[in-house]
Design brief:
nine-stranded mixed sheet, three-stranded mixed sheet, globular
Length: 226
Amino acid sequence: MSRDDGVPVGWAVSTQPVPYPAAVAAMEARAAAIADGTAGELIWLLEHPPLYTAGVSAKPGDLIQPDRFPVFESGRGGQFTYHGPGQRVAYVMLDLTQRGRDVRAFVAALEAWIIDALAAFNVTGELREGRVGVWVERKGAGWSREDKIAAIGVKLRRWVSFHGISLNVEPDLSHFSGIVPCGQTEHGVTSLVDLGLPVAMDEADAALRASFAKIFGPVEDAEVPV
């Protein structure tokens, strides 16, 4: 999924939580500029204050506690999800005109990016038919289950992507109980710390950056778009 011309992708990291409306406005402006040829591609890593977002396939009944946190409608694919401190959100603004215009291959590349980053911590991320995102299988004495560790929800406009992925590093997992995450009632959510791995956010960022470069091509430091 690399560019033929080898132009590096900007890599920006916000150090303070970013309000969701401000992030969406900045993403949409940057995606439009990329499509117009006036700005370069960008990966933007950030955290949000606690909130729920509803993707285009969200079902009203899946919002169990509508007054718990602010709820925002989102143009991304998918259903309800939670964002908050301890979760690394990566907004992905890439020009698919430069990368083959293959939506299926793009989503597969996002999945491979997350799985490769998890492997840096000896976590085996897996895909499941009919379930979006990346999952981990957990086993104990006489039990096993699959929990979601990362979500994917993207949108394309003029062949430029925005929205992106979220990886649970150390969020408060109880906050997911206010929704049916991604419409899944039979499975739970987990995080790197919940799996017993004391991973700091900067360590997760380093793994995401190294894995991104393997799959999408080189990156260079960039300014945050807000």
